[in-house]
């Protein structure tokens, strides 16, 4: 009887020792970064800074832009307003004089930018050394940001048969991040520095009243709308 009690005690101590070893020993199958963050955190979208550039020919006789280039300036300025950061720089060859603002092509570019909604203070003129080139262009530049999608490993590189732990696969969520990187309108928003606009309190109150009354809170369909499924491919 005493022998049985002793054996049972030894067995219980052995089990407790094994459990303690499991609790304290590191799991070599679980990467350290799995202990913090989420799957999407392990597939972050990067942000890179880039410079947008437009070169425009100058009429050397009048120092104005050559005819037919106004639309190119407007398109460039439109992109600047949509995704540009900092000032819009208009650089002119230094051979036109010490004051770049006095060059007719610079004034023309600034006037077009102003007409497109860019403040005069956001357009800065610079002079640059053209190295003696007689056909040196007027150069418009601004800074913007690009979203850098994470690298997603090929499915052949993922060991789906490795079930030593209950971890998610390394590629899980990566394709979501790639799609997000392609859809972000202004990658600088990933820095989180732009303040959010205030919410519409009246709109929220109207939606809340509809909810309390048991009414639909979504947009209602008009008479000319339908939810019928197309049969064109049948």
TrEMBL record:
KW Magnesium (keyword) present: no
Claim: Metal-binding is one of the keywords in the record: no
Keywords linked to the UniProt accession: Signal
Region (Disordered): 212-234
Matches recorded under InterPro entries: Pilus_biogenesis_CpaD-related
Pfam families in the record: Pilus_CpaD (PF09476)
Signal peptide span: 1-23
Name under which the protein is recorded: Pilus assembly protein CpaD
Organism: Henriciella barbarensis
